[in-house]
Design brief:
With 532 residues, the chain is α+β, with helices and mostly antiparallel strands. It is built from eleven helices and 16 strands. It is elongated, with a radius of gyration of 54 Å. The relative contact order is 0.07.
Amino acid sequence: MMKENSKQWMNKQIEFWKSRSKKQKIMAGGVLLLLIIAISITAYFATRTEMVPLYSDLAPSEIGTVKESLDTRKITYEIVDGGTTIMVPKESVDNLKVDLAAEGLPKSGNIDYSFFSQNAGFGMTDNEFNVLKLDAMQTELAELIKGIDGVKDAKVMINLPEKGIFVKEDGEKASASVVLNTENGYQFDERQIKSLYHLVSKSVPNLPTDNIVIMNQNFEYFDIKNNNSSISGNMMAQQMDVKKQIERDLQRQVQTMLGTLMGQDKVVVSVTADVDFTQENREENLVTPVDEEDMEGIAISAQRITETYTGNGAAAGGIPQAEDPADSLGGTYVEGANGNGDYERVEETINNEVNRIKKNIKESPYKIRDLGIQVMVEPPNSKDTDSLPQQRIDDITNVLSTIVRTSIDKSYQEELTDQDLEDKIAVSVQPFAGKVKFDEQSKPLIPWWVYVIGGILLLIIGILVFLMIRSRHNEVEEDDLSITEQEEKTVEDLEIAEIDTEESIRKKQLEKMAKEKPEEFAKLLRTWLTDE
């Protein structure tokens, strides 16, 4: 049955194709060919790996180092331009730049932006091209920085030195400023900060890390530690790092707490701390009684000696002695008289042990001696400072007072008065004029040509569906027409058959009447003749 149905369907399609006109056949073939071409183009662009420059102008040794790192990650790459430029897939270039920057690669060369020159039109001046290149560098660098954990958005401003007429041995250096929109409460480690500086430095020609400034939306600066500095091992540098870390941690905590209360872009916090780095080492030998109530130790050994004497002879006497023969108890004694008498001596010795405690104490060198917190709050209505109620300002002051009271070491200030806290806290309510606004709109991830091909495919599919529906409609009309004709023929045949049947019945009845009842048959004939 299935085979017969498929055969009927195939025959019907063949008949349908043969019934089409030449123009319709050409049109259907063109649509099919266009569909095949569109599918082929889509498959080509979908499966093609577009290679773009990762780094250019690298030394062969640097290319080899980057190549080893790419081999470890199993990334497809191409080395061109005589072994000075390395190409990678376009979808991987951003992540690779961030990851390799975290590893300190490359140590020479620059990130390549040559593919942006394709946007330059014919007749573009050098100044216009430099503006386009600078904008491309800033935009691309911001996109790279967004790939780092904890960064939601980034703004980059690059200042390139103008090229003079004369070549200088020590050319002017470029500079860069980066503003990050970071996630609330996220703390960057030293590796991530180093990656940021290295990425920015290698993205711009002739840009040292000393000319880079990185901060977040809360005006918190991210500094890089210079391991090559002559004071890197100095105690002073370490103390400054500890002081900055303490201030940064307190600032972040206060910023997060007040930002939750007022809004992250409504609060700016600054913290200054006075840290005592004095380190004290001391040894304590303490002796304490076991029984502190009776001030007695615990008996570990005891000795009792009893001596008695009775009889005649020289009377016992002498100087009483203590445990140490050199310690005299004073006086002499004589037992009895004339050599007659007796004496008794009892000696008891108990050795008590006490608690002997030896402490080696090393005081922490980081104690907060004094603390100051300055907070700027933008009112709900930036044009009206009175829109922030006084109760809210008092709440902020109370929170800051608690932080100051619990952060300062008790050894420096036993009890802080309200006046002391007021001197250490400042809350200012005023509008912000220097906030950095980040674009909320994101770039489309799908290229424009995908939409064009998709539209063409939809148009082709629509045309095919229309043709199929129209052909199906024509087939239905033809089937209905044939069914109608068949029904009409059937009705006519039935009517003819019905007429034939009535005449034959009458004929048989007349023949039977003529045979069986000739007289009645004759009367019937006369009646018919009379009627006529």
